[in-house]
Protein: 3-hydroxyacyl-CoA dehydrogenase
Amino acid sequence: MFASALKRSVYSRNAKACFSTSTAMLKDIKNVTIIGAGLMGSGIVQVAAQAGCKVTMVDTSDAALANGEKIINKSLARVARKKFADDEQQQKAFVDNVFANIAVSTDANSAVSQADLVVEAIVENLDVKKSLFAALDKAAPKDAIFCSNTSSLPITDIAQATPVDRQARFAGLHFFNPVPAMKLVEVVRTDAVSDDVFQDLYDFSKKVGKTPVSCKDTPGFIVNRLLVPYMFEAFRLLDRGDASVQDIDTAMKLGAGMPMGPFELADFVGLDTMKFINDGWAQGGKIEPALVQASKALDELVQQGHLGRKSGKGFYDYSK
Ligand SMILES: CC(=O)CC(=O)SCCNC(=O)CCNC(=O)[C@H](O)C(C)(C)COP(=O)(O)OP(=O)(O)OC[C@H]1O[C@@H](n2cnc3c(N)ncnc32)[C@H](O)[C@@H]1OP(=O)(O)O
Ligand SMILES: NC(=O)C1=CN([C@@H]2O[C@H](COP(=O)(O)OP(=O)(O)OC[C@H]3O[C@@H](n4cnc5c(N)ncnc54)[C@H](O)[C@@H]3O)[C@@H](O)[C@H]2O)C=CC1
Structure:
């Protein structure tokens, strides 16, 4: 007990104080706009709608929105079956009530016009994210909070697409896949973000049923900085011919207690996303080069369009 309390007091010295004591500026986040209806965006929409927020889900096409709705429907049905095991009517009412909180749109600018909070979960590309936020800044209320769910890009670089006032209301809000099941959110604080906004995001994370942790705007934040180099070392183990995909996955599940092996997890995350993360870090030059060496096996799969579960094939074949 004492040792852990001591540890906390020693190691927290370097972390910036999290919270302001004033609550005058705190925001009750009710209207949320999520940009991107893919794996992550749909999950964030679901947990926010389940928590009672009014949520607008945005993507570039009706087909992408329909895909997002399909993912949410499947996941909610699963939650409903668990909550109301023997009562199909209650299951249906639960799903309908959550969907009643969700609107969809292909017009990002109008979708943010009433937003308290905007969370971006689009492709992992700095220029695309910056041009989105530059446009959203003009369309959203001045006091709306902007967040990116980026896996690997510096929040400060993305926020630079917006004026200084917005940068004080811009942070990272990093959810984990699958969002409805994973309990963590990393709240990423830049040097520019205000204490009140940071506190609002902590409160929002709890409201949607997650445990927030705080991290500076450093490559990969906490989880990915540790998890991604481990996964790439597994890919390079395969490249070297030291062991097979199946044996590496089995080894890490049975020998290290991982819920998924590194290749199953990579297929789950998306191989394009894995490659974006590693390539970005390799170019950024802030991470030890040996940790971000490319993997031949991964590069070949991505080049062939095999992106993991979402495309039907990755390290494993899901088409059968
Ligand atoms: C790339 C990034 O930037 C960051 C990342 O996200 S990295 C990826 C992080 N994610 C991981 O590491 C996932 C690792 N995998 C796992 O934890 C597990 O395999 C898993 C949770 C995905 C599935 O677990 P499982 O035991 O095979 O399946 P299952 O027993 O059906 O589910 C476990 C729980 O999650 C829930 N769950 C799983 N998927 C769900 C979904 N889509 N919707 C709702 N609930 C879900 C289940 O209901 C179950 O809940 P209870 O424990 O309360 O009963
Ligand atoms: N896949 C994962 O396990 C995790 C991914 N992330 C991050 O979340 C973000 C999204 O990742 P995924 O959901 O996996 O991607 P995805 O490929 O499943 O979905 C991205 C969605 O964004 C849409 N989109 C692209 N450009 C858009 C734009 N300008 N406006 C509106 N919609 C647009 C696409 O049509 C697609 O539906 C990325 O930044 C990724 O790094 C974070 C945590 C985990």
